[in-house]
TrEMBL record:
Belongs to the aldehyde dehydrogenase family. PROSITE patterns: ALDEHYDE_DEHYDR_GLU (PS00687). It holds the Pfam family Aldedh. SUPFAM superfamilies: ALDH-like (SSF53720). Coiled coil: none annotated. This is aldehyde dehydrogenase (NAD(+)). It comes from Nocardioides humi. Keywords: NAD, Oxidoreductase. Its EC number is 1.2.1.3.
Length: 512
């Protein structure tokens, strides 16, 4: 593998953070606190911020509820004008936000810019949606009656986001929620508060420019107890939470206990089936990005390749060769493809998983070692690993949030689908094949049980137009495109009687 030889200095990283945040409207010089913001690039402290507390949640939610009572009466196309302006500001500050994402999360520049582009795209989608919040008119069984459904704003939406997509997931929820007439309270990851502050500042600028209520969007930077208070607050109509399955097990029941709504986007253990007819060149390109991109720290990261026994050796050799040429290091340096893990705990989890895989009969055929430790003891760069397994053991069924790719053999398509489905998670999956019948089976009801099922493309990445989410322990929620906007609104069924009579449904006679 090819490490980048020199990491940037702490002074350079701090300068970049100050510059990027300031360009987005965040004055870091006047915003000081006791909680350090670190960078995984070299372990440097970028800034120290004040944090909100759980006690602050009541006031923030009440302000959001007050703003909601005004915002819900604004026509949806006018609400779309706010999101449209926000999208244009994101375009103007794409490089600034991307820099903050790289600094706080360690994404390479192209991936960080891709995240901001997702934010821009969801704004464009939501603007169109603001004129398409359609209901239905259904035939009534009673003469002189009209039966229909209408959709109305829901209330306050609480968004809890994870470090690996520090702004895009918030934007998915926020752009849709705002055009639906909701207000938003955001609790970002405590690992990426500068990105959150900059994103929120740009939205606040758009709010001021279009004359929307100031509190339609609010930011709560704080510890997990702030998120817990948001989850439990009866004034929050919908909680959209992204994180681990463990987190979802706590959030879901607590929201349900107070009869709130939730959207849960949780873990993934995503697989790609490689059929005998697959284009192996296409496989290599698709697999390497999906498995090693973001240093394996995406919910859609490819973690399992299920290759037909006739091609599995060739697949392992091809992937091992590609992994050996991956440039690893400073994510902001030109040419880097793999940046750092977010923290030392991630390295520990990766090491433990590789040890377990070896104990369970696997062989590490590429990568797995830590690099650049001599330059930055508090930064955690690793070589993405390829592990050959003869069967799907316990460790393979677990999600390790690090760049480990297990390669397993199969003999029949039925067996490959069974391996794909035999994990608790159900987010993303794909099949590489030149056989149309195989593709259709994989896409069909007896195929992959995931929320995202692809053909001849990897598991990582998603287009804004399609609803994003998964099944089983992934949570079952949907965000972004398609009809996911339904989750952010309440439906009312309406009957209008214009007949001058009062016939009852199903011919009931209740004469008095």
């Amino acid at each position: 593998m090819s490490p980048i030889s020199q990491l940037p200095t702490s002074e350079e990283l701090v300068r970049r953070a100050d510059q990027a945040a300031g360009a987005c409207g965040v004055d870091l010089a006047s915003w000081r606190g006791e909680h350090a913001v670190g960078s995984p690039i070299n372990g440097a402290t970028l800034h120290s911020l004040p944090w909100a507390t759980a006690a602050d949640v009541d006031d923030v939610v009440e302000r959001a509820r007050t703003a909601f009572r005004v915002w819900r009466t604004v026509p949806a196309p006018a609400r779309g004008a706010l999101v449209q302006r926000f999208g244009r500001l994101l375009e103007e500050h794409e490089d600034d936000l991307a820099a903050l994402i790289s600094l706080e999360v360690g994404k390479i520049t192209s991936e960080a810019r891709g995240e901001v582009q997702e934010m821009i795209d969801i704004c464009d989608f939501a603007v169109g949606l603001s004129r398409q919040l359609y209901g239905r008119t259904m035939p009534s069984e009673r003469p002189g009656h009209r039966l229909m459904e209408t959709w109305h704003p829901l209330g306050v939406v609480g968004v809890i986001s994870a470090f690996n997509f520090p702004s895009a997931v918030w934007s998915w929820n926020t752009a849709i929620a705002l055009v639906c007439g909701d207000t938003v309270v955001w609790k970002p990851s405590e690992l990426a508060p500068l990105t959150a502050a900059a994103s929120a500042a740009l939205l606040q600028r758009a709010i001021g420019e279009v004359g929307a209520p100031a509190d339609v969007s609010q930011l709560l930077i704080g510890a997990p107890d702030v998120g817990e208070a948001l989850v439990d607050h009866t004034g929050v109509a919908l909680v959209s939470a992204t994180g681990s399955t463990r987190m979802g097990r706590a959030v879901g029941p607590r929201v349900a206990n107070r009869f709130g709504r939730s959207i849960l986007e949780l873990g993934g253990n995503n697989a790609a089936v490689v059929a005998p007819s697959a284009d192996l060149g296409l496989v290599a390109r698709g697999v390497v990005f999906a498995a090693a991109g973001t240093a394996g720290q995406r919910c859609t990261t490819l973690r399992r390749v299920i290759a037909h026994r006739s091609v599995v050796d060739e697949v392992v050799e091809s992937l091992s060769d590609a992994y050996g040429r991956l440039p690893i290091g400073d994510p902001m340096a030109e040419g880097t493809l793999v940046g750092p893990l977010i923290h030392g705990r991630a390295l520990g989890a990766m090491t433990a998983a590789l040890d377990a895989a070896t104990d369970q009969g696997g062989t590490v055929v590429a990568g797995g070692a830590r690099v650049l430790e001599e330059q930055a003891a508090d930064a955690y760069y690793v070589q993405p690993a390829v592990v050959r397994m003869e069967q799907q053991t316990e460790i393979v069924t677990q999600e390790t949030f690090a760049p480990i790719l297990y390669v397993l053999p199969y003999d029949t398509l039925e067996e490959a689908i069974a391996i794909n489905n035999a994990v608790p998670q159900g987010l993303s999956s794909s099949i590489f094949t030149g056989d149309q019948a195989e593709a259709e089976v994989f896409l069909g009801p007896e195929g992959s049980d995931c929320g995202i099922v692809n053909v001849n493309i990897g598991t990582s990445g998603a287009e804004i137009g399609g609803a994003f989410g998964g099944e089983k322990e992934t949570g079952g929620g949907r965000e972004s495109g398609s009809d996911s906007w339904h989750a952010y609104m309440r439906r009312a069924t309406n009957t209008v009687n214009y007949s001058g009579e009062l016939p009852l449904a199903q011919g009931v006679d209740f004469s008095v």
